[in-house]
Amino acid sequence: MYTHFRLLITTALVAATCFFSAPANADEPAQKEHNQVAEGINKAEHEIEHNLEKAEEEFNVGKMIMHHIADSHEWEFTHGVSIPLPIILYSEDRGLEIFSSSKFHNEHHEYNGYHLVHGDAETIVPVDESRVVYDFSITKNVASMMLSAIILVLVFTSIAKAYQKNKGKAPKGFQSAMEVIILFIRDDVVKPNVGPKYEKYLPYLLTLFFFLLLNNILGLLPGGANLTGNIAVTMTLAVLTFIVTHLRANKHYFKHLVKPDGVPIPLLLIMIPVEIVGVFMKPFSLMVRLFANMTAGHIILLSLFGLIFIFQSFMVAPIISLFALFLNFIEIMVAFIQAFIFTLLSSMYIGSAIEEHSHADHGH
User: Fold this and answer.
1) Whole-angstrom distance between the N-terminal and C-terminal Cα of the chain?
2) 116 and 209 share a domain?
3) Same domain for 241 and 130?
4) Cα(206)–Cα(349) distance, rounded to whole angstroms?
5) Structural domain that includes position 108
6) How many CB atoms lie within 10 A of CB 352?
7) Are the C-beta atoms of residues 37 and 21 closer than 8 Å to each other?
8) More confident residue, 273 or 16
9) Is there a single domain that holds both residue 53 and residue 191?
10) CB of 346 within 8 A of CB of 208?
11) 31-79 pLDDT, tens per residue?
């Protein structure tokens, strides 16, 4: 709409110029000069139209969004400012190869027989398709995971030292703030849902909560990685909960899968497949819920910022920026909620697998 409006104005100006620039009784040289001027204006008009169409083609909102939420072999903080990450490849014919991703910064994105393919996700493929290459590169998401692990180790090491130093004293400062969150997860999430044996699973569930919370928030920062919006990460976390649940499950849990209490024998042909499918649907729901919510938040925010470049107006930019800022605060709340829900459901799944038969009979 904005482009067509500009073209309409340009056409009107050209028509007005052609109408008023030629007197009624102009001679042939004047008419010729007038035609040259009109032709020059028409060329300028076509050039403006071509440049606008080219600008629209160059800026693709969908491509911009996918570029920011997808994994990458470099960590881009802002446009033109990025840190190259190490490429680690292994093949039988060449062995281990390590080099910087900056080597691919050329016209063809090729280096040493490898090609960096830009798509929904960046992949490194050998130019010789017959070669088998294993990619162990440190991507943006992997680097963000390492950074979050370092932050968590430093934070909780400092808290543990503070408890030892101030033993018997009331916590203060950052230690006091973290104690509130830790006690909330322990007393209101893990303990009621896991049951009396909650202490065995508390370290895993606390680690799960703070890992998700930290990475959800880091993903909202400018230049942050969309780690929890990567379905491979959420799938791994869901599988870990699945493994912990079924490694510690008691015999009553597995008995319930093959012969639920109180179900007539003819209905077992229906109930057993339903129960088995339900076992795998639990980690699947954990995986999809976290992935979908965090990815949707990033897409909405990036779509709002994309509107600024689409309209190309200084009047639109402040309004969209204020709305995006408000939405960013909502996303911070979502970051807490999603970490809480993932931990809560993991606690419930573990608790249902280890609860005693007598408790299950009484509906506890």
Assistant:
1) 62
2) no
3) no
4) 15
5) 86-137
6) 17
7) yes
8) 273
9) no
10) yes
11) 555 565 556 556 655 665 555 555 455 567 677 777 777 888 888 877 6
Task: Kindly state whether residues 153 and 281 are assigned to the same domain.
Answer: yes
Q: Is residue 18 part of a domain?
A: yes
Cβ–Cβ under 8 Å, residues 287 and 222 = no
Q: Cα–Cα distance between 42 and 40 in angstroms, integer? A: 5
Return the half-sphere exposure (C-beta side, CA atoms, 13 A cut-off) of residue 315: 1
3-class DSSP assignment, residue 362: coil
Report if residue 63 sits inside a domain.
no
Structure letter (DSSP) for residue 48: H
Concatenate the DSSP letters of all residues of 167-190 into one string: TTS---THHHHHHHHHHHIIIIII
Structure tokens at 118: 């830009």
What are the tokens at 290? Answer: 């976290």
Q: Are residues 41 and 94 in the same domain?
A: no
Question: Sign of the CA dihedral 123, 128, 130, 132?
Answer: negative
Q: Are residues 120 and 227 in the same domain?
A: no
Whether 300 maps to a domain, the answer reads yes
Q: Name the amino acid, one letter, at 3.
A: T
Q: Are residues 210 and 133 in the same domain?
A: no
CB distance 286 to 345 below 8 Å: yes
**What is the number of structural domains in the chain?**
3
Query: Is 76 a member of any domain?
Result: no
Q: Are 175 and 162 in contact (CB under 8 A)?
A: yes
Which residue, 294, 142, 110, 150, is CA-closest to 219? 294
pTM as predicted: 0.77
